[in-house]
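Convert to structure. Protein one:
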Amino acid sequence: YKSNSLKSDYYLSMAYPACEAFALSSLGYLWLYKLADEFNGINVEKIYTEAPIINKKSNAISFSMSFDFDFMGVFEILEKNKLNFFAKDRCKADPLIFAGGPVITTNPEPYKKFFDFMIIGDGENLFIKILEILKLNLSKEETLMKLSKLEGVYIPYNSTKVKKVTENLKTVIYTPILSEKSYFKNTFIIEVARGCMNRCAFCTASYLNLPFRNYEYSKIIEAIDLGLKYTNKIALLGAQLSAHPDFDKIITYIKNKIEQGKEIELGISSLRTDSINPELIKALVI
């Protein structure tokens, strides 16, 4: 993708509270960075724990939290930038600090003292609405007041209940940045479906992303073709991939590409053993 953002006076630091290799493998983090980088009116930068120093001009810092232990990275980045951990101890001149991601959506309460606000649920469209408010560059109080009106934004000092945002999946999410530094080197990850209908009692991902949703077959194929222009490593992401109504067709499309001479390394995030079939095995091992 190409950055479309115009230079402005508003600076957003998007922090992934772990190493760069993990950040460059996080589809959600990279996709939101893409949205911010294409958004006119905001300057955006990526931050990791190896290089945690934030632009002194930063008006806001966002944290994407995928795992419980990410909070250690949050504290590391805040400490190295001489920012107080607790929101109540930060002054008006300090950046607005907020967070989202699976950890926050699952249970935001352990983190409510640290962040000015949190994103609950799917973040794609909500993040754009948040950027629209941030670029106004209002005071913290005015910004939080406007943000409090958005469904899915949790402001700890506001006792109003917050409803989790659930997106209708339209635009396929894929890896916008390919890198040798990524944990999954040069791998083009494509989200095929979100949620899981099995609702296993031990699985947070199942309940967190209900209801089960999937992208249209044609859009997934478009994403596969796009990825193959830049890399031969394609990975399909979803908690219940085989529940996609056209999953067999997707695998057959990839297998046919391989049989026609296209070199493809296919990765699958997760599969139930009862969904494995000969076509899938051929696509994985050819």
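Protein two, convert as well:
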Amino acid sequence: DLSCVINALQKAHRILIYLKSTFDCKYEMSENLDALYDFLIGRIVQANLKKDAAMLDEIIPMIEDLRDTFVQADRNARSK
């Protein structure tokens, strides 16, 4: 259903905007993540404007990799 897809895109957009707002710019990695998040946000916005879910096929693996990285980082932090 189109409304579910639109809601999911809006939620993903809000999450990425929030993550961008949490950067600590003293780390070099922050610049790289900022550029990646800008790219992901741009693709989400374009997919939403064009109502073209196929545009998301390119970024879904990237987002899954980010998710997996955050999960692993959380596990590492909790085990210390």
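The first helix runs from residue 2 to 21. The radius of gyration is 14 Å.
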